[in-house]
Amino acid sequence: VGIPMAPIRANAALICGLFLTSVWILVQNENHLLKSHSRAPINKHVSMKRFQPSRIGRKWTLKRDIAARAGASPDVLIVGSGIGGLSCAAMLSRYGYNVTVLESHSRAGGAAHGFERRGYRFDTGPSLYAGMSTPSVNPLRQVLDAVGEDVEWATYDSWAMHTPEGQFDFKVGPKDFLRVLEKFGGAEAVEQWNVLLKKIGPLHESSSSLPPLVMRSDLGALLTTFRYLPSLLKPGPATAAVAGPLDSILDGVVTNKFLYNWLNFLAFALCGMPADGTTAAAVIYMLGEMHKEGAVLDAPVGGGKAIVDALVRGIEKYGGTVSLRTHVKDIIVEGNRAVGVRLENGEEIRASKAVVSNAPLWNTADMLKSQDSAGAKAFVAQADSIKPTPSIAHLHLGIQGEGFDNLEPHQVIVNDWDQPIDAPQNLIVISIPSLLDPDMAPDGQHVVHAYLAGNEPYQIYEDAKTKEEYEDLKETRTRVLWDALERVIPDIRKRVVKGVNMTATPVTHARYLRRHKGAYGPFLPAGRSSYPGPKTQVEQLFRCGDSCFPGVGVPAVAASGINAANTIAEVSEHIKLLDEIRNEGVYDDTLTKPRQQQIA
Predict the structure, then answer these.
(1) In sequence order, what DSSP letters do the residues of 308-339 get, joined into one string?
(2) DSSP secondary structure string for all residues of 356-387
(3) Which of 332, 330, 337, 310 is nearest to 322 (CA)?
């Protein structure tokens, strides 16, 4: 399920809907390269799910004993420790490859890392998750299960919306949204919603049938996905349409203004682009999951850092290494083959099998500019032709927290439906994760994360010529965030704890997260372009992250990591791993549902 937030795209829906046409896409990409916590939660909606270690990933490695790999040179080097890079490293380590992750920052996690200030714990990125508290087709959940790791999850079922029509709580599940539709859109909206659900129902069922763990971007995908083809193709010709933009599915069905605005908002929240640029498959899957019986939303106890720590544990469990404060300057290419990296200090590290870049598209190009191979030059030229998305601006606050018992942990503000949903400062997200996990803040306090959700231009900050201009710009551009916060917590300014009031801009993203122009990914709208697979024009140089298939968002980048790892592994190793996971009893035989569901 997904939900709104810049990082909502990052956390929004499970992107398995994108896999409806995955076999065709994966094969085509062969030639289409870049074309424990003691305090109980205080929110009334929250329940806690204690960590139950997965049984998967305890017995074996495919290639060699872990002890034999200690001290050996790496088979695979991974540049960057975002969720995509860590997922790739976890899977490759699980296969038995000797993997080293090289991260420039002092913390792992990339744009999803966490930090602490005076006892207040903050997430820099994603604030909403789903499909994580039980085994599911969420790619990140499948990675954690594959390496036998998990975190503790708090579950809840709603978030608050503030729209021009009024305020309402959106509650996941099959029935409550009908009340919202009738109130704000009338009988017409309800009727069109029911027609839309009937239209996309078979597509959602089909999209739910393919587990991310079977993905790979070579002809071996025919072997790993063959058993799923009947389910994938069951909707018939309509299957192909979901690879296009959401608008192509809505045309002729949705004309009601409120309903269309809602779906347009969800598309932007999921992928950072409106309905005319977001892949229909992603939204179809999200809608099916959000409105099914028993649907819940998940929050990691300990914040996003807990997820990053679990992935790192999985990597190290199988002999892999995550090296922090290790900046890669160049990817070394010899004879159009990636053979290693050169660090900023001049040290060279060689990889016997592959190099994987989890760095953004343009940063990867920068690491290839010193190389003379035709493949490296082609990659650089194509990266230069891709436009980045806008960026994000944040407020991170520690506040006095009395009187919040009935406050939703997430609040979304849409200022003006008549403006494009992606217009600067039109969509704001407020997250108060300490309502779900009180240990995120000292007793009686809360942490607040408010941000402009993927719609903040980088250029205006880049044009600031002095520090004074930049500081004035920060104050001016974040005024809308304070206005939004005062709609939710009227006395918010009086509650702010001295010394725990931090602002981050697109320049912050560029400087500390090494994001090109602060962007969260490339601008690749559905129907006009497509995300490439993990392979590049340079042999044995692979990529994962937000500029690879399936695209932007935490589930998507985790899927890209799975895809890269599986493509690097031999097909026989991949099939053996899938069989082993089926035999462990956590998932059913399809690898899409918990085993206990099948028994029940």
Answers:
(1) HHHHHHHHHHTT-EEESS--EEEEEEETTEEE
(2) EE-S-HHHHHHHHTT---HHHHHHHHHHHTSP
(3) 310
Classify residue 14 by burial, with Cβ atoms within 10 Å: 0-12, 13-18, 19+.
buried
Nearest-angstrom CA–CA distance, 335 and 373: 7
Give the integer Cα–Cα distance in Å for 346 and 392: 33
Q: Give per-residue pLDDT as tens, 11-54.
A: 333 334 444 444 434 434 443 443 333 444 545 455 655 444 44
> How much is the pTM?
0.89
Kindly report the three-state secondary structure assignment for every residue of 270-310.
HHCCCCCCCEHHHHHHHHHHHCCCCCCEEEECCCHHHHHHH
Question: How many CB atoms sit inside 10 A of residue 556's CB?
Answer: 33
Tokens at 423, concatenated:
């217009």
Q: At 457, which amino acid appears? A: P
Map residue 469 onto helix, strand or coil. Answer: helix
Please say whether the beta carbons of 542 and 567 come within 8 A.
yes
* Separation between Cα atoms, residue 477 and residue 484, nearest integer Å: 13
Closest CA relative to residue 562, chosen from 50, 193, 19, 7? 19
**Are the C-beta atoms of residues 130 and 13 closer than 8 Å to each other?**
yes
Dihedral sign of CA atoms 171, 176, 182, 183 in order: negative
Q: Give the 3-state secondary structure of residue 154.
A: strand
> What residues does 354 pair with on adjacent strands?
76
Q: What is the largest CA-CA distance in the chain?
A: 67
Query: How far is residue 544's CA from residue 562's CA, in Å, rounded to a whole number?
Result: 9
Asked whether the bond before 550 is cis by omega within 30 degrees of 0, the reply is yes
Backbone phi and psi for residue 500, each to the nearest 5 degrees, phi listed first: -125, 65
> Pairing relation of β-strands 114-117 and 410-414?
unpaired
| 224-241 per-position pLDDT tens digit | 999 888 887 777 776 777
Q: What are phi and psi of 562, to 5 degrees?
A: -60, -45
Rounded distance between C-alpha atoms, residue 497 and residue 198, angstroms: 50
Both tokens assigned to 10: 């990052």
For residues 392 and 422, what is the distance between their CA atoms, to the nearest angstrom? 12
